[in-house]
Amino acid sequence: xxxxxxxxxxxxxxxxxxxxxxxxxxxxxxxxxxxxxxxxxxxxxxxxxxxxxxxxxxxxxxxxxxxxxxxxxxxxxxxxxxxxxxxxxxxxxxxxxxxxxxxxxxxxxxxxxxxxxxxxxxxxxxxxxxxxxxxxxxxxxxxxxxxxxxxxxxxxxxxxxxxxxxxxxxxxxxxxxxxx
Length: 180
Known about the structure:
The protein is of the alpha+beta class. It is elongated, with a radius of gyration of 24 Å. The protein has helices spanning 25-32, 93-96, 106-109, 122-132; strands at 2-4, 13-19, 37-38, 42-51, 54-68, 75-90, 111-114, 118-120. It has one domain (2-147). The N and C termini lie far apart (70 Å). 14% of the residues are buried.
């Protein structure tokens, strides 16, 4: 998705987003690596407007993904939503980087550079979606997970296994003896 800078005049330029997840390299890699499966396209809107010496791009993206619960291993679907604002300044990234250490202001954390007459938003959009995908997905906050003894899904049924207070972290050291 590209914005032609000359098309942004006195009033804001509003563009719709409706792209399959496969058109974004990072999202396609996430799907290929099994992190999640994109059930629907990435949809949203982007608003670009000129402000002083930069271009403000704000927008929101939504998509639906399929995940596997990290506790009970059951597949489930989840909606992803992300809103963002990025300030683009003309120039190359090397011009803004200095060798001295400087403290970044809040606007520096959400700013980027562009060169030429167009701004490519594909990387920024895929980054916004990727950051919303949970690292440890849960089908429910109250998910009970699997029984560590018999492996039954505790959400679906109860098992008769005893709850032991055994700590597996140091089980390899249980027979360790120190000779003096």
